[in-house]
Amino acid sequence: MRDTPPAEPAAAAPADDLAGRRLVLGLTGGIACYKAAELTRELAKAGATVQVVMTEAAERFVTAVTMQALSGRPVFTSQWDLRAPNAMAHIDLTRAADAVVVAPASADFIAKLAHGLANDLLSLACLARPRERCSLLVAPAMNREMWDHPATRRNVAQIAADGAAVLGPASGDQACGEVGDGRMLEAAEIRDEVVAHFQPKVLAGRRVLVTAGPTYEPIDPVRGVTNRSSGKMGFAVARAAAEAGAAVTLVAGPVALPTPRGVARLDVQTARQMHDAVLPLAAAHDVFVATAAVADWRPAQVAAHKLKKADGHDAPTIAMAPNPDILAAVARLPRPPYCVGFAAESHDLAKHAREKRERKGVPLVVANVGPATFGRDDNALLLVDAAGERELGQGDKLALARALVREIARRLPAAQEPR
Length: 419
Ligand code: C5P
Hints:
The protein has 419 residues and is α/β, with parallel strands linked by helices. It is built from 14 helices and 20 strands. It has helices at residues 33-45, 64-71, 89-95, 107-115, 121-128, 144-148, 150-161, 187-197, 232-243, 271-282, 326-331, 349-360, 370-373, 397-411, and strands spanning 2-3, 22-27, 49-54, 99-105, 135-140, 165-166, 170-173, 179-183, 207-212, 217-218, 224-225, 247-252, 264-267, 287-290, 297-299, 320-322, 338-345, 364-369, 378-385, 388-396. The strands form five sheets. Strands 1-13-12-9-14-17-18-19-20 form a nine-stranded mixed β-sheet, with helices on both faces. Strands 3-2-4-5-6 form a five-stranded parallel β-sheet, with helices on both faces. Helix 3 crosses helix 5 (121-128), helix 4 crosses helix 7 (150-161) and helix 9 (232-243) packs across helix 14 (397-411). The longest helix is centred in the last third of the chain and has 15 residues, at 397-411. The two termini are 25 Å apart. The structure holds cytidine-5'-monophosphate.
């Protein structure tokens, strides 16, 4: 088992994740302005209307022409712009907006926000926005020493205390040649943060543990037994739970999927490793969602060297041993989290799900048609609990995962103290 590298963004967001959202995208002075061009496209592709506002310094790094072409809307750069009929662009810009996203946000601009200064169009618009319905998301971008400076730390803490969401920054190579904290997040990461921002926080304060993917049971150093689970459903559940405000731990079998933002991930290979990773963590979580397609059996002996084909001899017979049932073991804990099992069936979904619910001793089983969903981006779910059945019809896995997260949140005992 090993810890994985930092989270990467998902490759693409579903096309309608930001449908109907009206965003003001503010650019302030910094090399990272080049990423704002890409961000504009990402936000627009996800369905948002993007109104770009640039400071004078931002225009030194990227032109308004570029930003207008990408956003499909005239860019605002000055508080003296007479295009607004009432000459009050700083007021009008945010009255119909759902959020202002400042990316990149320079140290200077964050200082202005912290002190309520308002001497250019973007800072005016931030100060004048209706805070209860237009949020402020800020993606800092600056040299590591500037980011580390006590004045910047104070200002960042202040804007967070005033209600701004601070996105990042990331760590790594900087345009100045130094290495450290202060890089702006990548465009797709900021897009994912904006998408997450708009999801209802139905799991705020909760801790959620998810298993995902197949397991791999070695026969010898080069061969093994596994299955066709892609891990997509479990990763979608982890992402949806994080978007809903939960602290999420994802224990993943061998899959080639990026870690959803904000999710802590542990990679394992075998069922026993997954069991050993999950069991000590489970009691500290409020919810356990077992989406992994855990191998039921493993080769009883793992050969130290590659099994050789001996001329004229029969194929080897591989003795198998049963793997531990992780979900059932978690459900048997003295104070188990709310346990959600998955059932990949080929027929009689409800019947098998009900049986599985009883057998594993879990309150909720989610059934799907295994062969129809393995490796695909869409799925359909049937939820079976003590109260009966509920269908979540065909949809992409992230949309279904968000719906499932809402269903789980509704079922959590209200009196249960977050762990
Ligand atoms: O027993 P079966 O494999 O049909 O049950 C499926 C459910 O149990 C899934 O939620 C799966 O993640 C979980 N499971 C487990 N450990 C196993 C086998 C299945 O956690 N060894």
